[in-house]
Design goal:
The protein is α/β, with parallel strands linked by helices. The protein contains 11 helices and 16 strands. The protein has helices at 14-25, 49-55, 93-104, 123-129, 134-144, 158-174, 188-199, 317-320, 322-328, 366-380, 386-397, and strands at 4-10, 30-33, 45-46, 74-75, 81-82, 179-180, 203-205, 212-216, 219-225, 228-237, 246-259, 272-276, 287-293, 304-311, 333-344, 353-355. Strands 1, 2, 7, 8, 9, 10 and 16 form a 7-stranded mixed β-sheet that branches. Helix 1 (14-25) packs parallel to helix 7 and helix 1 packs across helix 10.
């Protein structure tokens, strides 16, 4: 281990694994370590079911009615992926007119603006132009554009229109949902990027205790593990490795619920995402529900996993998620966790220590993707070019 690397990565959460893969593809010499013996970190998939019971300190083994324990792969933090990076619920003409406008909108073609200045007109004024009601606005902003607050309403409308356009194009790609979800749970994703890193020369070490992050003159120079030092120019890590360099900005409550039935009023769907907009439940933040099932190889046959999450706003977090839990009844078993939201205290430009954010309450990867792109830009000084990464990957795999 006494070598010098361009980048050392600590932690195997999805953010860290994606950045490890990206840096390796870009020709960097990468060493990736984790104190845990498994991939995924905070976003791991737990299997078998017995391990989930142990993790949450529930007495006794799972009941026989839940099937074989090894049939379960339960995500601690579920996230859906947007399929392309219309809706039959609202048949009102003005909303259809709005969606047609969004579909035709092209920020490079002023002929599609219809009197709206995408750099100056606020989204609030766009909604007024199409005479949309509050319920439709809540749905559009939080379920389609995936905003977590209403701050976007008074910002220039261009970004919001493009977010809604992404949702529509993603939905059109597969017809039933704009989202993708990996079989066997999200734990497959970090492993996939770890393999990508390894193909490009990255070195992985699991179950490796981290004794010290070595900093000289305010800048990281290496990591000490089991008496050996690996030197580096830059370090990527999750907040658990540098507790003195992060601060708490809130908390998230998550409740994993095991069901023996699909969620009511979802046409017996084997997966779905439900977003309860903040205004609908007199809150400052949305409540999210992610449901998956045996169709995704994450649960025993006939079983469903629904995970409710939201940003904590009071001293009684479980009461805050009651509107979502009521949608899921009857619930066979619940696993409740409350975790801190941690963010880096600085951008890492001086120390060259780049720290990811903990996962928020959302059930989609949009905010995680933003964090990845932000860290990449701070490390390299340039925007992340996904098309360039695909071209480099295709050089090895020979894909189109």
């Amino acid at each position: 281990m006494n070598e010098e690397y361009d980048v050392i990565v600590l932690g195997t959460g999805l953010t860290e694994c994606i950045l490890s893969g990206i840096m390796s593809v870009n020709g960097k010499k990468v060493l990736h370590m984790d104190r845990n013996p498994y991939y995924g970190g905070e976003s791991a998939s737990i299997t078998p079911l017995e391990d989930l019971y142990k993790r949450f300190k529930l007495p006794g083994p799972p009941p026989a009615s839940m099937g074989r324990g090894r049939d379960w792969n339960v995500d601690l933090i579920p996230k859906f992926l947007m399929a392309n990076g219309l809706m039959g619920l609202f048949e009102k003409r003005r909303f259809r007119k709005f969606l047609v406008y969004v579909a035709n909108f092209d920020e490079k073609d002023p002929r599609t603006f219809e009197g709206i200045d995408p750099k100056k007109t606020t989204m609030r004024d766009v909604y007024k132009k199409f005479d949309l009601g509050q319920d439709v606005i809540d749905f559009t902003g939080h379920a389609l554009a995936l905003y977590r607050t209403d701050d976007y309403l008074d910002q220039p409308c261009c970004e919001t229109i493009n977010r809604i356009k992404l949702y529509s194009e993603s939905l059109a790609r597969y017809g039933k949902s704009p989202y993708l979800y990996p079989l066997y749970g999200l734990g497959e994703l970090p492993q996939g990027f770890a393999r990508l890193s390894a193909i490009y020369g990255g070195t992985y070490m699991l179950n490796k205790p981290i004794e010290e992050i070595i900093v000289q003159n305010g800048k990281v120079v290496g990591v000490k593990s089991e008496g050996e030092i690996a030197r580096c120019k830059q370090l990527i890590c999750d907040p658990s490795y540098v507790k003195d360099r992060v601060e708490k900005v809130g908390q998230v409550i998550r409740v994993i619920c095991i069901l023996s039935h699909p969620i009511k009023n979802t046409n017996d769907a084997n997966s779905c995402q439900i977003i309860i907009p903040q205004n609908q439940v007199n809150r400052k933040s949305d409540i999210y529900v992610c449901m998956i099932s045996s169709a995704h190889n994450v649960a025993a046959q006939g079983k469903y996993i629904a995970i409710v999450s939201t940003t904590v706003e009071t001293k009684e977090p479980e009461k805050e998620i009651r509107p979502a839990l009521e949608l899921l009844e009857p619930i066979e078993q619940k696993f409740v966790s409350i975790s801190d939201l941690l963010v880096p205290k600085d951008l890492g430009k001086e120390s060259q220590i780049f720290i990811s954010r903990t996962y928020d309450a959302t059930t989609h990867f949009e905010t995680t993707c933003d964090d990845i792109k932000d860290i990449y830009k701070r490390m390299t000084g340039s925007e992340f070019d996904f098309e360039e990464m695909k071209r480099k990957k295709n050089d090895i795999y020979g894909e189109d």
